[in-house]
Structure formats: structure tokens, C-alpha cells
Amino acid sequence: MGQWIELTEAKPPQFTQHGAKGLKVNLYASPYDMPVAARGGISPDRTGFTIELRYLTEGEPTTDRDEGMLRLSVGRRSGRIHRIRVNLAERPVDAVGLQVQEIQDEVAHTLRSPRHGEQLTDLRNADAVRAALEFAPQIYSELAQAH
Amino acid sequence: MQGEGWRASTYVGLQVAAVIVALVGGIFGLATGAPEASELAHDASLLQTTGVAWAQSLRPHAWWVVPLASVVAPGLHWLRRWIGAPWVWGVVNVALNSIHAQLFDEYDGPEHAHRVTLFRYRKWRLGFDPWPSFGWLVPVARSGHTTRSTRARFRAPSEPSHATGVAGTAFVGRGILVVPGNGDPALPALTSGATDKKIRDYSSRSFTDENWVRARLKGRPRSLPRSFAGIPVEVSEQPWGVIVIDSANPSIDRERVEKSFRTIAGTLSKVLEGVI
Fold this sequence. Notes:
The complex is a heterodimer.
Chain A: E1 5-6, E2 14-18, E3 24-29, E4 37-42, E5 48-54, E6 62-67, E7 70-75, E8 81-87, H1 100-112, H2 123-135, H3 141-146
Antiparallel strand pairs in A: 1-4, 2-3, 4-5, 5-8, 6-7, 7-8
Helix pairs in contact in A: 1-2
Chain B: H1 4-31, H2 44-48, H3 50-58, H4 62-83, H5 86-104, E1 114-124, E2 134-142, E3 154-155, H6 165-173, E4 175-179, H7 196-205, H8 210-217, E5 227-235, E6 238-247, H9 254-271
Antiparallel strand pairs in B: 1-2, 1-6, 2-3, 4-5, 5-6
């Protein structure tokens, strides 16, 4: 795995909801939903690329869910994403045509609309993770080097 | 918000009471094992022994004292955890003071011009107000040494449009709320004698009721806060309460609020695990 990259400077996503008296309220993602650090790395057998995320609080048990070519480890209580594993078994990193951008897009797309929705994944957190990964694309550097 | 002294002495009092109740329950429990007077008829001198005589006198009451003690002692323990240990609230106050120092140390003026208050979510509370008693945020700790007593409570029901105050709106919305928002005009400086228009503007933008704002202005020597920030607080990955920062300054920097909160969030969430 690569080095932990600090994400505290990443801008939290904003969202709008209706408050008292029907007024629109603009809020920023909770600091608990924003990852504070992340790292990425290719598995030794080169069949997977994993992104690990750290939050303000740690130690929450997780459960794994498949989301297409991704496997998300999601907090059992919070629904927050703690680990993203991209399955490269059918598309080894050495294969011609594999683009890092393609993987980044796949991760971003899945985080934007996880198949299992709110049942499993906290959507606010998914937005925050997407913003954090956009802030620090160097998380994918091992993937780029392997390619 | 209860005083620190009241909370600490109640906590200690409950601890002592729980130990006494457990001891009494244990003694009565032991008394049930004492032999019947008829069993000791062959040796009348034993019945004269202080311990045996005492056990004989307790024995008739054991059937209700033991079950009662086994319910009351855990109840007192639960109440103790509900109030929270004094050292926990000590750490909480250090955390709130730390946020206060990071955000406002550079400003002159009285300490109470900028405050950091921790509100705790209660599913229900007893009160005499027109609102249902479900879903409230009540103040439990505040930074500094002055103006620590507050009765301000805010609604935080599951329906976001019924939440009140920056506290209720940030808690229900599960996000950081800053008033005035980026690019919004400053809140009016309200003192007693403020016009209806200003009060209406202030109340709608701070998610409060006009009458509530009027009541707060009565006999108030200084103006109401001009900017707010609300940050949800989690314990064991579940919503627990909210921190509200209010200031006499016309704006609060969201990034600085977030940075100051991040420095204490882990500790705060950990120590509050000890409070039910």
C-alpha cells in the first residue's frame, strides 16, 4: 500500500435541504463523514487495487458489499465506506488499454449512485469520499506506475 | 444547563446510594440463609447470639428487600451513567474551551461575546410548552466561566422542516451549518427595542420563532449573537448532539470552525461513550 495521504484540506461537499418555515438550508458534509486520510495500493497478485479510508473516529466493524467491479467495506453502524477494492482480475493492470482514469471514473460513478443505495451506504459519506478522492488523485499513483 | 457542582455532587451521591442499596440487599440476602428459630430450639443460647438474633429479625423482610435492591441498585447505576462522571464533563469543557481559544483568542472583548455550547439530543423531555415532548436538544456544557447557565432548548424532530435553531437544523441535517452563509448579508444587530422587521429577519435566518427572539431580548444588556455555526457530534457512529458556536462577530469562517472541531472530535466522541 502507498503512504497515507492527508485529506483534511479537501473541501466538504455542500447539500441543500428544507429547514424551518420552508427555507432552503445549505449545509456542509459532517466532519465525521469526511475521510481524514486515504491510501491506495495494488494487491501482491495484481488482481485488485484497494483504497483505504480513515475517519475522525476509528474501530467501527465493517461489512463487505459488491458494487459491480468494486467491493465496498461499509461501516455497520454508520454506513460509511472504509475500503474500496477494485477488481482487476479480468483486467490485469498490465493489460493494454487499461486506463487509470477509467478506474477513477468507475469509483466516482459507483460512489455517486451505489447500487444498494442508502440501505448499505451512507450517500452523504459517498459524496464526501468522492470529493476527497478528487482532491487527492495521487491515491491512484501505484496504479498509474503499474500501468 | 445544570451547574457543574450540582452534576458532580449528584453523581457522587448516586454512587454512594448504589453501594448502600447493594450492601443492604446483600445483607438481607445472607439473612435468608440463617436457620429457622425452630431449628435452633435444641440450643437456645445460639438464639441469644447477636448475629443470629439480628439475622432472624431481618429474615421476614428479605422477600421484598432483596428483589427491590436488585432493581434499585442497577437503576441508580444507570442514572449515574446518564448524568456522566465529573471527569468526563471536565474533558468536555477543556474541548469546548479549546475550540473557543482557536477561534476567538485573537479578538478583544468579553468572553461571553463568543461561546461554544454542547447540546445533547433527548428523545423526549418533560416541559410545559406547546410542542410535543419528543426530539429535543438540551444544553449540557459551555465554554468559559461566564454566562454558563442557559435554558435555550431546540427542537430536533425527525422532520427537518420542524427543527428549530441552528442547533436543531444542523443536527437533523447532519451537516455543518454556518449563519450567515457564504455571501449572505450579516444578521442584524438586535438589542431590546429592535424593530419588528429586524426581529423577523433575525428569527427566520436563525431558524427560531419571533416570540422566542423577543423573549431573549427582554432586559438583555447586549445584542444577540450575530453569527452561528452548528456541528453535529457523534458517539459510536451515531448522532449524539451538536456543538453550537455563537459570536458577536458578523461572520464565522467555516474552515476554521471545522479545523478547530477536528482537533477535539476524536477525544470528545470517545469520552462521551461513558454517558448514556
